[in-house]
Amino acid sequence: MSRGRFGVHGGQYMSETLMNELLNLEKQYNHFKEDPEFVEELNTLLKEYAGRPSLLYYAKRMTEDLGGAKIYLKREDLNHTGAHKINNVLGQCLLAKKMGKTRVIAETGAGQHGVATATAAALLDMECEVFMGEEDTKRQALNVFRMELLGAKVHTVTTGSKVLKDAVNDAFREWISRVDDTHYVIGSTMGPHPFPTIVRDFQAVISEEIKEQIIELEGKLPDMVIACVGGGSNAMGAFYNFLEDEEVQLIGVEAAGKGIDTEFHAATIAKGELGIFHGMKSYFCQGNYGQISPVYSISAGLDYPGIGPEHAYLHDIGRAQYVSATDDEAVEAFEYLSRMEGIIPAIESSHAIAHAMRVAGDMDKNDVIVINVSGRGDKDVAAIARYKGVELYE
Amino acid sequence: MSDKKDIKIADAFNDGKAFIGFLTAGDPTIEKTVEYVLAMEEAGCDLVEIGIPFSDPVAEGPVIQEANLRALSNNTNTDDVFEAIRKIREKSDVPLVFLTYINPVFYYGYDKFFKRCHELNVCGIISPDLPYDEKGEILEVTQKYGIDIISLIAPTSKERIQMIAREATGFIYVVSSLGVTGMRSEIRTDLESILSDIKEVTDVPAAVGFGINTPEQAKNIAKVADGVIVGSAIVNIIAEHGENAREPLVNYVKSMKDAIL
Description:
Chain A is an alpha/beta fold.
């Protein structure tokens, strides 16, 4: 087996043009992650710039309303730029800078990763270009302007289905064309090795903090950790430090869109098959002789036909369970958390909340659920209004 | 042909410099693919690369991306491509290789795919997303059926060049430039030094592709390489002329082949 495997998944299925760059990235990452100066610099940025540690908040009203397990919310929505994406982006941009790169590129779905990358690039004085599917630039028009405000150039991707997958395609095409001075800041635990490992490591701070915080608050580990899964970075971050704690149930929630028995979903574990795409072996929504299927979710951030290779492995060995939530369930959860706790979650994170709403009531009152609220929902307000048939002008 | 002949990639390089043409199967139709491959061979093409269309051709520029889309919008699938090759083989012994992303091959099943290749005398596979480091994915099966994995070497390969070249079979595909496929006005890579690194460790022929468009460029490349690979320029002719591309294709291939003789 080649480098970067999680069971049969992962690997480096990439153009020869990028192979030396990937090998170098791995080498440099292995060096810098042990370099006290780099670690100190990154920790300072996470603390003083991104606002870490993020809160672990006891959702009292939600707990009482559902009448079962105690529910805690990991508030990644309170990070600077409003999502967990900043954890990875600060790490990768700092690494790129140390590697002598002057320019970063990124793909984005909902726009959160693009905004985070544009933010880090501004902070670290690097050039930044973001690739975003045309459909998503419409769904998330404000984030396009936000990225431009931060000094990034946004490329509207008009190829393929014009969503996240196509943005990744064009970001790879750009990287193949200009690799010397450019680092591709992949936004999720996906792509060729070493990206799934690097992104997971930079996001692992989420579970590291949850562990400390919950032991202080409850004197025990959580019984269940729930996170939404597209490519899988917030979930990998929330799961990672619990992998060895077998008693902690890990649940990833995929986007079921209009239902997993329709054509309109992005539920890779539920409906996908083993394949090789975007540099990795993993599960993908595909059909018709191995063509990658168009996927759908109300959430631009979960609208991806694959899943990170480590999640595919955790699924294979049964260490994590993967379920799904529909658009309707996610919207209901979005509204529920807003009213119940005064917290407007990202539509992505709302998928995780929807699953907690299903299971919490049947659990024991001594059980503890941690939901990773991966991002805030301000960006989604207009789209949810439209979904509910409300005309709203921004 | 009733008797199975043994067609080899080496046949393409036996008689001077090789001209290697590429087209995407099913663009504009699978019937035209058969006609155009035969036409290209008649016009002097020594080896034809046949692209299996894929939904997400990450290594391609706009010209070949659109050809993939056209082929898929006709519902061209892998079995159709094999059927086209069966028809080509009724009339021609031209060496053929597949250019395909690895997922359609994985999905079809490696054993089933390469068995079909063997039966139809398809000599090799070029897979833009299967680098040297991952060729273990298919190596056992390709060896079982005698199919060559065509190695790619890029301007960024540097110290990897000789590692890759040492294990190469069939021919070596030297990528002329950074970036995706597509026509370029100028090729700046130091091809001579890449090719001399290759020649130090192997006798497997090395052909250069990516960006080659004009007879002038082909002539210059042929001075240092064993063959010239042209994709986007051919696909562009097909895009422009659709079902009537036979004549312009023949003229173009002739002009390119003449330039490298």
